[in-house]
Amino acid sequence: MTVLTSSTINNFDGSDLLPPDYAIDIENKRINQDKVLNTHGKNLLDLCLSSGLRIVNGRLLGDSLGYYTYMSKNGFSTVDYALVSESLLSSVQYFKTNDFTYLSDHAKIDLFLKCSINENTEFKLDNNKWKSINTYKWTEQSKNLVINALSTDYIREEIISLEILDINKTQDGVDEAVEKLTDILQNISEMACKKFFGSNKKRKRKKDNLGQIM
C-alpha cells in the first residue's frame, strides 16, 4: 500500500502521483508551509495534472518558502494560487506573497512575467464603437422572456449554428466563435431585458435648492 505524505503532495512530482508521460519539474520543486491536504487541494492537483499546469507558489524568488495566503480564527493556510502552463513557467520572473493587512484575511499575491513590449506602440480604441454599446437590465419579467426567446426558431437556429461551427484552433477561429456567442446573448437580451442606449456623455448632476449635489 502506497502512503502519500504531505510533503509528497506539496511537491506533487512524486512518481506515485503522476502519470508516466507527465513532464516533471525536477529543478523547481515546490515548498509549501501549509501541510494539510483537503478535498479542494486534491481537486486543484488533479486539475494541474490533467491540464499540464504548474503551481507557481513556493517555487520562485519572492515566495521560495511557500508562504501562507489566508488567515482565520482556525489558523493559517495557503488557498490563493497562481497557475501557469508548463511552457509559460520559464517566463515567470518573480512571484511574491505579500504581508497580511487589516483590509483582508487573504494576502495579495503578485506575479511578474518576462515580456517584450514596445513602449512606442500606441493602442487606440474606436470611440464611435463604444458609443453604440448598449446595456441591459434584468427585470421581473426577464426570466419568462428568456425562456420564450430560447423557444423561438431564430435563436434556436443561431445556437445550432454555433454548435456545429468548425472552429479553427487559431486566434481568428476563437474570435469568430466569441463573436457568434456574443450575438446570441445580445439578441436574447434584446428580447428579455430592459435596454439602455450607450453613450459616452457624462450625465449632469442636478442640484437641489440647498446647492447640494444629488
Q: Any overview of this molecule?
A:
- The strands form four sheets. The protein has a two-stranded antiparallel sheet. A two-stranded antiparallel sheet has the order 2-3.
- A hairpin with a 2-residue loop joins β2 (70-72) and β3.
- 10% of the residues are buried.
- By secondary structure, the protein is of the alpha+beta class.
- The chain has helices at residues 6-10, 39-51, 127-131, 142-151, 153-163, 171-192; strands at 53-55, 70-72, 75-77, 83-85, 92-97, 109-113, 135-137, 194-196.
- InterPro entries: Endo/exonu/phosph_ase_sf (IPR036691).
How would you sum up this structure in a few lines?
With 214 residues, the chain is α+β, with helices and mostly antiparallel strands. Helices cover 31% and strands 14% of the residues. Strands 1-4 form a two-stranded antiparallel sheet.
Tally of helical segments = 6
Mean pLDDT: 77
**Unreliable stretches, pLDDT < 50, 5 or more residues?**
1-17, 200-214
Strand count = 8
Strand ordering within the main sheet: 1-4
The best one-word shape is extended
Beta-strand percentage range: 5-15%
Q: Over all CA atoms, what is the radius of gyration?
A: 25 Å
Major beta sheet summary? 2 strands, antiparallel
The residue fraction in helices comes out at: 25-40%
Structural class: alpha+beta
- What is the H-and-E element order? HHEEEEEEHEHHHE
| C-alpha end-to-end distance | 71 Å
InterPro entries: Endo/exonu/phosph_ase_sf (IPR036691)
Give a quick set of tags describing it.
214 residues; alpha+beta; two-stranded antiparallel ribbon; disordered N terminus; disordered C terminus; Endo/exonu/phosph_ase_sf
